[in-house]
Amino acid sequence: MHNVIGRCPVCSEELTVARLECHACGSELSGDFSLGRLYRLSPEQMRFVEILLKNRANTLKAAEELGIAYPAARGRLEDVMTSLGFPVTPEESVSAEKRREILDQLAQGKITADDAAKLLKGR
Prior knowledge:
By secondary structure, the protein is mainly α. It has helices at residues 43-54, 59-66, 70-83, 90-93, 96-107, 113-120; strands spanning 16-21, 28-34. It has a two-stranded antiparallel sheet. A hairpin with a 6-residue loop joins strand 1 and strand 2 (28-34). Helix 1 crosses helix 2 (59-66), helix 2 (59-66) packs across helix 3 (70-83) and helix 5 packs antiparallel against helix 6. The longest helix is centred in the middle third of the chain and has 14 residues, at 70-83. It is elongated, with a radius of gyration of 21 Å.
């Protein structure tokens, strides 16, 4: 049996299911059924979600298991959130590394507190 895909390989739009079948009793159900949000994810995104869940939603541990940096794991998480239709606010999109750089610039007097606040909000 093959895995179901959630996106059209031609135009990338969301696919729907037209027919369901029970292999045990032979019953069939026809209609227009949604695959659900998780089928919007690419195989790579689904693998990331599985690893994230395995690590009890600890992004740092998931990053370690994947052998990638924490900011890269955060980026993958934000990509998954976007694919699932959840908003990613600017505050959430500033990486920990970027946040440290901004705070260092503020401490060194290179930027003002107002500038730092705007940068931390992703503006």
